[in-house]
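Course assignment 3, question 2. Fill in each field.
Student: A.L.
Task: Predict the tertiary structure for the chain below.
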Amino acid sequence: MKRLFVFIISILFVLPIFAAKKEKVQQVDSLGRKIKTGWNFGVLPSVAFDADLGFQGGALTNIYYYGDGSQYPEYIHSLYAEAAYTTKNYGIFRVNYDSKYLIPNHRLTLDATYQPDAMCDFYGFNGYQSIYNQDFHKWKKDPEKMGDPALYQSRAFYKYKRDLFRFAADIEGTIWKNIKWNAGVGVLGYMIDECDINMLNGKNEFDPNIPMADQKAMNDKVEGLYEKYVKWGLIDQAESKGGWHPYLRAGLTYDSRDQRTCPTKGIYADAFFTYTAAFNSQKAQQATAGYNHLQFNFNFRHYVPVYRDRVTFAYRIGTQNNIAGKSPFYMNTYLNTLFIQRVMYEGLGGANSLRGIMRNRILANGFAYANVELRCKVAKFDIGRQHFYIGLAPFFDLGVITQPYELDEEGIKAAYAKDVLEATLSTPSEDRPVPPLSLGDYFALDENDNFDHSRVYMPHMAAGVGLKAAMNENFVLSVDWAMALDKQDNAKWANFYIKMGYLF
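Answer field:
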């Protein structure tokens, strides 16, 4: 990992030094930073790593315009473009513009994004009420390290196919001093389907990591959890294949941060409503099913200087809840935001919400979360015209469900029993290497085999530490390590995330 970090640092920071346009360096600001002017840009490799998505490769460009530097480290215009793919079949194709000077006294952001995801994570509804078993999807070459090799289902057992299209425009204006109004409009398009196992494995129908004697365990007829949820009626047919959803958003913000990218003091808080509808081929069906819905979001961030700008205590608390209508399951994996600043806004779990916890592990109608960090700038230095610092940031992340899915428990039991009976009668035992799983393999049950509701509201927690390398207070490379405190959230202890920027 040390060598990998050094390599990435070299690529991401040495290239911009030579790519940036020469600008006149003016006086220093109150913190001793040399003020930058003019255009600063470079074309960089999009190199990253995510414990859930794998290694990322591609290209990006980030162009900043500082003008005469009077507002530095704030920029006048920012244009960001990226095209990349990960080793776990996740794609990023994005263009983003951000400025609070194009329209005087108003901040404007524009975003167009396409995210193909051949294996999107799906672990069921209501957090701990849904059982996670890594033996179902993780084959290990050494049988002695497996809990029960007979339980292996498919590497796509906890996956489904999802293509996401996003088009968004957001604007912000000032009401009084640090209090601002916000409005936005956009469209989210979701294309949902079961994973294409044959495509993922190429010409081989089965997983090449599985010995030949066990290849039937990877038969593409083995159903994943998403397929079972559709069959059992937990996911309605009206939402099982996705849909297109225009939305309107409005809210208020309070912002007293000293800067947006690397704040060292101040408060940022927002509260907003998002109304989402459905249109195109699924408009009538989804409107009838109640998929037009209203959500409320609240987010509070606080940055407390402990020692000048060197040590900062930072924390974030937030919540997202449905207050009217019904949202399709795939939209509950999306964390609403007033401004699109990064490519992914997944729900609870993963690099952008709860580090160390599997992506989208917590899926519910409403949830709350908290992130706490101690950000320490260990070293500050200049290379050429560029200003750098290296930092450490230990952190703790927590998430809880506030609005669970209301499950038809008797209906689930009946559908499960029917499913097991049909599978047993229709398939000869010698052709079925994997025996039917028990209901307790999917849902947390009490001693009477009833659904255990006490697990719904249990907190999901993780802890870790981040290594930061920043250039010009705007360009930040983060290497975070995190571990879930409960194996139901992630059985792995080595969860690394290499990405751009702070989490908040």
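Instructor remarks: The chain is about 10% helix and 40% strand. The chain has one domain: 2-500.
Grade: pending
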